[in-house]
Amino acid sequence: MSTLLRYSAFLIVSVLLFAGFGCTQKKLDDGKIPITTSSKEARELYLRARDLQDKFLIQESRRVLEQAVALDPDFALAYRDLAFAQPSAKGFFEKFNKARELVDKVSEGERLWILANEAGINGDPVKQEEYFRQLVEKYPKGERAYNALGVFFFGQQKYNKAIVEFRKATELAPDFSPPYNMLGYANRTLENYGEAEAAFQKYIKLNPVDPNPYDSYAELLLKMGRFEESIKTYNKALMVKPDFVPSHGGIAANLTYEGKYDEAREQLKKFYDIAKDDGQRRTALFITAMTYIDEGKYKEALAAIKEQHALAENINDTAAMAGDLGIMANILYEQGRYDDALERYRTSLRLIMDSELSSEIKANAKRFFLYNDARITMKKGDLKAAETKCEAHLEQTTEAENLNQIRLSHELTGMLALEQKNYAKALEEFQQGNQQNPYNLYRIALAFQGQKNDQKAEKYFKKAAEFHSLLNMNYAFARTKAEKMIGGK
After folding, report:
1. Domains 142-207 and 208-316 share a fold
2. Which of 144, 241, 408, 474 has the most CB within a 10 Å radius?
3. What is the pLDDT of residues 77-89, one digit of tens each?
4. Rounded to an integer, what distance in angstroms lies between the CA atom of residue 233 and that of residue 110?
5. 80: closest CA among 19, 149, 35?
6. Chain centroid to CA 326
7. Is the Cβ–Cβ distance between 323 and 473 less than 8 Å?
8. Is the pLDDT at 62 greater than 50, yes or no?
9. Which of helix, strand or coil describes residue 241?
10. Is-contact 21 128, C-beta < 8 A?
11. Which band of pLDDT confidence, cut at 50, 70 and 90, is reported for residue 229?
């Protein structure tokens, strides 16, 4: 999974949900998903672009897909994949909405896939899973359908289920490489490092002249704390493709965890300078901000996010601007500037509510605002009001049947329990939260510390400190805090 995609908020929703395989001009007895287009040339371009996306050469695929939709303006799958290749959230929604408008003009497989993507974007995992299950039932020989279902389970943190689907995909098509990549990530998350390494090595063998397999393997080495080896492997990706910008982000992560902040930012300056569009420039700025947060330089982090926000403002990218304001608010929250943070959370919500985004996205935004409002309320000392907001958040996320948001709600209730010094309750809630969130692991450690259970507190402080993911906000906030607590520092 490329580093770059992990930093694009709207792509995190449905990463790897690429197009189907087959052709409407032949019978559907091969059990694969067809491709609906009136143009033979457009279809060939689409297949070329799909291959580029399989290799995470997203920017390169965009130009090819633009040619495909020019030849066939009703090419739904091409618009869908073109959406995922956009450098901005604004462009993403423009192209995806076009694919959605064409959903009744395509095969059942294409319709199910696009609707599954839509459900993911709208934060409706129940509906998304239903569509993907229908897809694999209707196309039992479609390796891409099983891979997509596996990616869905991966996103829901159901890693063992994901592995089952990825293996089905490899059994159907042993030379189809994306499932090996995801098998590597799933096993890495489960700390099955030997199996993860075997999957990534197979991925490299299938794609020896592509950069992403080396990038993925380098991320495993990063996770294992083998920083020098990881940097060398990221550089292998850059030897294959010097402008493969995700690997610059991976190198910066390694350097950050070695405490080499200036070198990390020099690497990110290279990233920024070779960026091909504002999407890549925003990514470089975001990762730069994370290096500053990790170093404890919040003022500089805010400046980088403001620069990122200016790029979105230039094209009136509402979704991106709202996201940037949320990031700024999170930084202000960590500084204890709660009123300033709340103001930006409110402005972010207002942007979404005044936009033309879907009602489902707006409902999700309201739930996220409630989460942040509750956090600030408890920090300002009104624990009774915070408790009411926590209960409302859990009720709303449960009703929405969004597992990831339900986990977030448990983390929120755990934060309140910490403030109340109810450490047993805090542990109960945090353990129902996201175990892939290092800040949650740090809070678990604080709860054990409150119970005077120093052994378990040490264990979780260490897990949080040595999480070694790519640079992201939760880890940036938690890593050095946890590191300082190890060994009773």
Report:
1. yes
2. 144
3. 999 999 999 999 9
4. 37
5. 19
6. 16
7. no
8. yes
9. coil
10. no
11. very high
Q: What's the chain's average pLDDT?
A: 93
Assigned token pair, 129: 């899973």
Alpha helices in 258-402 (DSSP H): 261-274, 278-295, 298-314, 318-334, 338-353, 359-379, 383-400
Q: Which of 219-223, 271-275, 344-348, 438-442 has the lowest mean pLDDT?
A: 271-275
Query: 């997509």: which residue's tokens?
Result: 148
Q: Which of 285, 220, 180, 151 is nearest to 469 (CA)?
A: 220
Where along the chain do its domains lie? 1-140, 142-207, 208-316
pLDDT of residue 489: 53
Which residues does 27 contact at the CB level (< 8 Å), separation at least 6? none
CATH fold of 142-207 reads 1.25.40
Separation CA 152–CA 130 (nearest Å): 11
The pLDDT score that the predictor gives to residue 25 is 36
pLDDT confidence bin for 245, thresholds 50/70/90: confident
- Structure token digits, residue 425: 């309750």
Distance CA 254, CA 249 (A): 9
Residues 6+ apart with CB under 8 A from 439: 464, 474, 475, 477, 478
pTM of the model: 0.91
Asked if the model's pLDDT at residue 156 lies above 80, the reply is yes
Which stretch of DSSP H or E encloses residue 50? helix 40-54
What's the CATH fold of domain 1-140? 1.25.40
Q: Is 487 exposed, middle or buried (0-12, 13-18, 19+ CB in 10 A)?
A: exposed
The total of other beta-carbon atoms located within 10 Å of residue 266's CB is 13
Residue 3 has pLDDT above 50, yes or no: no
Measured in residues, the chain has a length of: 489
**How many Cα atoms sit within 13 Å of 389 on the Cβ side?**
21
For the range 47-55, what are the long-range contacts, defined as Cβ-Cβ under 8 Å and sequence gap of 24 or more?
Answer: 49/78, 49/81, 49/85, 50/18, 50/19, 50/81, 53/18, 53/81, 53/84, 53/85, 54/18, 54/177, 54/178, 55/207, 55/210, 55/211, 55/212
Confidence at 4, pLDDT banded by 50, 70, 90: very low
How far apart (Å, rounded) are the C-alpha atoms in residues 53 and 61? 6
> HSE-up of 210 (CA within 13 Å, CB side)?
24
Backbone angles phi, psi at 432, to 5 degrees: -95, 0
**CB-based contacts of 254: which residues, under 8 Å, 6+ apart?**
222, 227, 228, 230, 231, 234
Question: Which residues lie closer than 8 Å to 366 by C-beta, 6 or more apart?
Answer: 349, 353
Conformation bin of residue 468: beta by default, left when phi > 0, alpha when psi is -120 to 50: left
State both tokens at 292.
């500053």
